[in-house]
Amino acid sequence: MARVVVEVMLKPEILDPQGQAIGRKLPQMGFEGVAAVRQGKRFEIELAGPADEAAVERVRELAGTLLANPVIEDFEVHVAE
Q1: CA distance to 35, 36, 42, 50, 57, per residue, from 11 (Å)
Q2: DSSP, res 71
Q3: Domain encompassing residue 45
Q4: pLDDT tens figures, 9-50
């Protein structure tokens, strides 16, 4: 069994209100020196077989149609180690 990871983030030009809220709260909690926070999503997908090129491409299709909104989000797909 293999695991593939999909990481989804808002595109840089899209505002991230949740990340901004976290960033504003950090100094109040004693975490100084953080310039900005962007919040994203991580999906770990276990495959029934090997993570060969065809399987990773299918996960890439899945990410682009279901896990991410390609209009406002970018995503990366990689095989977990």
Answers
A1: 18, 15, 15, 31, 22
A2: T
A3: 2-79
A4: 999 999 999 999 999 999 999 999 999 999 999 999 999 999
Instruction: Quote the radius of gyration of the chain (alpha carbons, Å).
Output: 16
* Token code pair at residue 53: 């090129």
- Structural domains counted in the chain: 1
| CA atoms of 36 and 51, how far apart (whole Å) | 35
- Note the pTM of the prediction, 2 decimals: 0.88
Burial 32-69 (b: 16+ CB within 10 A, else e): eeeeeeeeeeebebebeeebeeebbeebeebbeeebbe
Report the CATH number at residue 39: 3.30.1280.10
